[in-house]
From TrEMBL:
Gene Ontology molecular-function annotations: methyltransferase activity
Keywords, in A-Z order: Methyltransferase, Transferase
Residues in coiled coil: none
CDD domains noted in UniProt: AdoMet_MTases
Protein name: Class I SAM-dependent methyltransferase
């Protein structure tokens, strides 16, 4: 991965917004038809995503872009599986290693600074996961080729990622600003890019599920209205954005309002899965 992307990731994730806001697993949760807290919604999302994988102590999972290890620790504690976390940001991996040690999970979970694209070692995994991370990786074809290589025969991947659910989309300037503020970059790729990369890599039984209605929209509203997390989010945005965004603030606020009300979707959150042939 090139130096520019590395620097962009470090700028966004050296101060981990999830950690700052008290969101241990990701920036989203999963809300069903009944109200739950943000913490409960975070747990629900992991259960919804990973229960179909039927993980157990014999499984070995690779977590791409696993950050501070929240998801990996949760998987190890719930299923007893081994997990290797890789991430480009050294500060994230350092925090992950501290958390793993504090939980007494050194025998199950490891974390290393590593680029998924240049990853090269002999071990194979039963599963590969990634939560809201691979949209940062520009070469999707190479990424899925690497994933195919490091999965055992019959191995599965499950990931969530932000993408455009359109073949062609030209975001406005305000859209790009919002993308940068929320995701750390001003562009995303279309669903078709992912579909082509997965097929070309050799995966079978791929499944794309748009989970925006259960994750993105209620997460925005619930985080903003949360009495503890809401003020933290507003403070965070002021600190990282500086004065240059003040002129744009009314436009950004109106655009985010439309996003929360589902009247104009800026992007979607998808759950994507696939399997390496036996």
């Amino acid at each position: 991965m090139n130096t520019t992307i590395n620097q962009s990731l470090e700028q966004v994730y050296d101060l981990d917004i999830c950690d700052y806001l008290g969101l241990p697993y990701s920036m989203t949760g999963y809300w069903a038809n009944h109200p739950v807290s943000v913490a409960e919604a975070q747990e629900h999302q992991l259960e919804y995503l990973f229960a179909p994988l039927q993980l157990n102590p014999s499984c070995h999972v690779l977590d791409i872009g696993g950050g501070q290890g929240g998801c990996a620790i949760w998987l190890a504690k719930k299923y007893g599986c081994k997990v290797l976390v890789i991430d480009l940001v050294e500060a994230q991996i350092s925090a992950a290693q501290q958390r793993i040690k504090a939980e007494g999970l050194e025998d199950l979970v490891a974390a290393v600074t590593q680029d998924a694209i240049t990853l090269d070692f002999s071990q194979k995994f039963t599963h590969i996961i990634s939560i809201e991370a691979i949209f940062h990786i520009p070469d999707k074809a190479k990424l899925f080729q690497k994933m195919f290589k490091f999965l055992k025969k019959g191995g599965e991947f499950k990931l969530t990622t932000h993408l455009y659910d359109k073949a062609v989309y030209q975001p406005s300037l305000i859209d790009k600003i919002i993308l940068y503020l929320v995701l750390g970059q001003d562009h995303l790729e279309s669903k078709s890019i992912y579909e082509d990369a997965i097929i070309q890599a050799g995966f079978q039984d791929s499944c794309f599920e748009n989970i925006s209605a259960q994750t993105l929209y209620p997460t925005y509203n619930n985080i903003v209205s949360d009495p503890i997390i809401g003020p933290k989010l507003r403070t965070y945005l002021k600190e990282i954005n500086g004065r240059w965004t003040l002129w744009f603030y009314p436009l950004i606020k109106n655009r985010l309002l439309k996003e929360c009300q589902k009247s104009e979707r800026l992007y979607d959150l998808y759950s994507i899965s696939g399997k390496k042939p036996e």
